[in-house]
Amino acid sequence: MVEIDNKKERLAEAEQMSIEASEHWQKEQYPQAAVLFRQSLTIQEEVLGPEDPSLAENLYALGSIYYIQRNYDEATGAYQRALSMFEQRAGALSPVLLNTLIYLAETRFANQQYDEAEEPFSRAVAILDTLGESGLKELADVLMRLAHLSYFVGKYIESEPIYLRALTIREGLLGPNHLDVAHTLSQLARMYHVGLERIEEAEPLYRRVLAIRELAGDENFDLAESIYRLADVYRQQERLEEAEHLYERWLKILNAHPEFPTADLSWMRSGYLEYLDARGRDEESTSLKETWGEWNAWESMLLSRLEHQESTLGPDHPDLAETLQNLGNSCMFEEKYSEGADYYRRAMRIRESAFGPDHPSVAQTLNGLAKVHRVEENYLEAEKLLRRALEIQESALGRENVETAHTLEHQAVLAAERRSFRQAEELYKESISIYEKCLGKESRDYAEGLFHISRFYFGTGRFGDAESTLLSLLKVSESDIDVSKLEKCDYVRLYAAVLRELGRDAEADTMIQQAEAMEEQHKLEISSEA
């Protein structure tokens, strides 16, 4: 009896851990969530055995955390174990298996295990087929994922009937003019156009996509893309007058919506510039290259947004504060510090009035204003602002929070510039520790934190510490973290500089060659996006 009670207590403890893990998950505190899910799972395994089907939920949750952290090997293992247990409980064709199958497939796709991804997608389709009308919407969604997998690996012929089946289901469920139908048509058209080069079949699909999105009445990014893709087809068919008309519409929408993501526009912009160059319209091409290539295009977009917000919302609406904050950041980049300070001060006034003086958004603006004072060597004022920002964040968010860590890093930079090197090192280390605890080692903030302290060590002549930290950074950067290839080049170049200072010139030369190769690869990737 005592043993039974002890097992119940331990299982109750495991359940509480799972609840706490879920709370961390909702707050996007993934490392803490993963630790608690693992601890809960360990207790369940010890009490119930490693093959007990009741472990399935914890394994599924742990797999999802690993997936979010891009730890795909661990996620795959957790999902596979969960899937086996769900099968024991409910059978191989139970709808209970659906989420696990879909996310197992997505994990394998993200891990570049493309052949292995097809099987769980196909199993999910088989289960949904047994559900009849109740499963049709999700069936279409999974069919689209399966079709995209085939398209992605170049199995264009195999993807065609899957796209067509998804299209038939969505048209039947949603009607011929639904935006989900437009999305399906667009993917099918791209497969015909880019994959199979059957442009005559792509054209009517692109026209239908455009008609549906025009009917929806939203002048958004999807509409702009639809116009561009049809214009591109007309260009290839030498229907230049029709292409020109559509390109003009596309440009008009882009000019009216500077908030469209630049990264998503890059392939369309490149294609249009090629069109202008091929037509001998050099002046137009040069003008657009200058506009699209300069940082001030970002500032112009922000100013246009600010003007629109002021006219529609009023001069003190809280939504203006983010735009003003970004304008301050833009001015900092261009070394227009006085203008930047004005934008930051106005943003702070709005946020203090709207949310109160102790709101975390006020701390964000204080950080920006502190940067202005730091670069102008007004260190006392910068220190005062950062201290207030830190007090706000510690009270509202806690010490171990990513936003708090950002402020600690700003304090570290300030301390280093004031030659308080011991204090700077302590602040850098604390911020890095918080990044690791809150986000994990495979995060951008953690990587950049290592880079910043490495620069600090290099600047203060501590080349041995710089080398060891950079070696850790380079190992982290080998994983799929949210850091650009050019930023990784900066890591390698700093390591080369450290090696040079240590008298290891041959190794330094090798690292420089590696950085140059990475930069060249980046240029090739950019040029192939169109």
Brief summary:
The protein is mainly alpha-helical and 530 residues long. It has 25 helices and no strands.
Please explain how this structure is put together.
The chain has 530 residues and is mainly α. Among the domains are: 2-245, Alpha Horseshoe (Serine Threonine Protein Phosphatase 5, Tetratricopeptide repeat); 440-530, Serine Threonine Protein Phosphatase 5, Tetratricopeptide repeat (Alpha Horseshoe). The protein is built from 25 helices and no strands. It has helices spanning 2-26, 30-48, 56-68, 72-90, 98-110, 114-129, 136-152, 156-174, 179-195, 199-216, 221-236, 240-256, 262-278, 282-293, 296-313, 319-333, 337-355, 360-375, 379-396, 402-417, 421-439, 444-459, 463-477, 485-501, 505-528. Helix 18 runs antiparallel to helix 19. The mean pLDDT is 87.
